[in-house]
Amino acid sequence: MFNLVLFGPPGSGKGTQSENIVTTYNLQHISTGDLLRDEVSRHTPLGTEARKYMDQGMLVPDEVVIGMISSKIDDIPDARGFVFDGFPRTRTQAEALDKLLEFKHTKIHLVLSLEVPEQELIKRLVTRGETSGRSDDTEDVITKRIKEYHLKTQPVANYYNAYGKLEPVTGSHSIADTFKALSKHINKYILPVS
Ligand code: ADP
């Protein structure tokens, strides 16, 4: 198995690059943002609870997200590997993920961190907000999401760096060039299937 965390601030391109990576390497994409939005649109109790936080640009409580991830991993027992997108976002989530994977006799092999200047992030998110229909893509909520990122999510990079798993990748170049840079790292572990 090969398990990758795609790390980076809101708007750094995690979603787009995850799609490319899972197709090229035949991995399973797990995006907590997508999973949460699906719960919201289906008006499940989890979705109703999560929405309160998402609409304010705050992180959804750890136990909610960890439970969701755990059942998602169990749903796909014979995966070649997973790409975690938007997870883990706190140190508690990172520790929980390590435990979940250890239980399955596997681990996180690599953490690729997309680096994009803050001005570029805000520009991208505001532009996306014009078409995404996402209720959290407005300028004041975007600012809150970035603040929450610096406060709670950035420390996750140190967590993985201490294990020598963190590799920074420039995320401000074109989609194709960024994908090439990400692939160089992934190819050290597994080969493309397409
Ligand atoms: P972005 O990375 O652009 O902020 P996401 O789709 O990853 O967008 O996340 C949208 C929102 O969903 C976050 O602002 C947060 O409220 C919630 N969320 C997503 N992933 C997590 C997580 N791992 N832990 C807590 N909240 C999360």
Polypeptide structure, described:
The protein starts with a strand and ends in an 8-residue tail after the last helix. Helix 1 (14-25) crosses helix 8 (175-186), helix 2 packs across helix 3 and helix 4 runs parallel beside helix 5. It has helices at residues 14-25, 32-41, 45-54, 62-75, 91-103, 118-132, 139-161, 175-186; strands at 4-7, 28-31, 82-85, 110-115, 166-170. It has eight helices and five strands; from the N terminus they run βαβαααβαβααβα. By secondary structure, it is an alpha/beta fold. The protein is 56% helix and 12% strand. The longest helix has 23 residues, at 139-161. It has a five-stranded parallel β-sheet, with helices on both faces. The chain has a domain at 2-27 and 79-186: P-loop containing nucleotide triphosphate hydrolases (Rossmann fold, 3-Layer(aba) Sandwich), CATH 3.40.50.300. Bound molecules: adenosine-5'-diphosphate (ADP). Adenosine-5'-diphosphate binds at residues 10-11, 32-33, 36, 53-54, 57-60, 65, 86-87, 89, 93, 136, 145.
